[in-house]
Design brief:
Bound molecules: adenosine-5'-diphosphate
Structural class: alpha/beta
Radius of gyration: 19 Å
Oligomer: single chain
Order of helices and strands: EEEHEEHEEEHHHHEHH
Strand order of the largest sheet: 3-2-1-4-5
Number of strands: 9
Shape: globular
Helix content: 25-40%
Largest sheet: 5 strands, mixed
Number of helices: 8
Amino acid sequence: MSYYAGIDIGSTAIKIVIIDENEEIVGKKVSGSGSMFYKYAKESLEQLVTDIGIERDDIAYIVATGYGRKLFKEADETISEITANAIGAKKAGEKFGKVRTIINIGGQDSKAISLDENGNVVNFAMNDRCAAGTGKFLDVAAAKLEIDVEELGEYHFKANGTPLSINSTCAVFAESEIIGLLGNEHSKEDIVAGIHFSIAKRIIRLTKKVGLNDIIYFDGGPALNAGLVAAIEDELGRELAIPSYPQITTALGAALMGTWVST
Ligand code: ADP
């Protein structure tokens, strides 16, 4: 049996997916990118190979994607995040129907991609200014509120009243805005909901630039945050399609690419 690895070296996290010849996922791993992401990516791949009980040589092809892809010399090929995201979304989203719009929020950028009937990329828009509406924005906010990013969803659903309006687009300015809101005795729950709604509004504006066609699929690490998902759905007035493992779908797309180009 041959295996195929996709590695998404993002600004915040390294995601690895290993699939078999039948395109089934046999291993997946998420680890921090840190400052030496090339080294960590190599170590993570070796660790995953060991964990799933295969040999490095059993991997027939490695495709790297993401921000740090060019530095990963072990890769047989590299592809852009947009292409890998589209391929991954088509596969991970097939249980919902044909994905036509992708919303991806990453560590330091957010993207909207529109796809045609066959899953080909038609258009995309990206926002990477000031970490506005990204995982970094959520990480900074959570740290200031002294909660874990994993807890943001829980806080969101405990908010009462109208969510606060967070006006800062830069993570740095948002931090001082949050300090001000805490100083005015607003609850952490209401602040968290305000942050989610402000990100939701921003990502919907970005997505409108490429067209909001059904099925709207949402992935990237922040898609694990149920509060953010609910805020985007509330603002859209529609349900989002969220894959089972939203943080690894771009890596899955890269792995799938490997099965096509290596044969
Ligand atoms: P990148 O590809 O740019 O490295 P990711 O798609 O991996 O980014 O997303 C990283 C972000 O996902 C983190 O900054 C964090 O805010 C968010 N995240 C990761 N895991 C969780 C979780 N369990 N709950 C909520 N948010 C999460």
